From TrEMBL:
Keywords: Membrane, Transmembrane, Transmembrane helix. One of its GO terms (biological process) is response to type II interferon. This is Interferon-induced transmembrane protein 3. Belongs to the CD225/Dispanin family. It is found in: Membrane. One of its GO terms (cellular component) is plasma membrane.
Amino acid sequence: MFKEEYEVNNLGSPQNPGPEMFKEEHKVSVLGAPQNSGPVMSTVVHVQDEPGVPDHIVWSLFNTLYFNICCLGFVAFAYSVKSRDRKMVGDVIGAQSHAATAKCLNIWALTVGLAVLVIFFIRFIIIPASYNSL
C-alpha cells in the first residue's frame, strides 16, 4: 500500500525541516484510507426543481417585434413577464394563469398577423401581377 511520512507541526500542516525548529513536531504516517472504520456520516441536499410553468416570453417577444397587430404581441409580452415574476416568487397558480393568458394572446397575435400578411400579399403582389400579364 502507498505510504508517505511527513513531519507536521502542532497546527497540522506539513513543515520542511530547517535549522530553526521551535514548534513541537510529530511524525504522521499517511495511508490511503482512515485506519478506524467507524460510521460514515453524510449529508444529502435535495434541490427542488423550479415549477415547469412555461412563460412563453420568447414567443411573446417575437410577436411584439413582428406581429404586433392591435398591440396583442406587447400585451402578451407583459403577461409573459408577469408569469416569470410569479414563478420566481413561487406563486405557481398565478404563473400558470398569466402564462395561459400570454399563450392565448400569442396565438391571436400570430393568427391575425399572418392573416394580414397573406391579405397584403394577395392584394398588392398577386392581383397587380395578374393585371400586368393581361
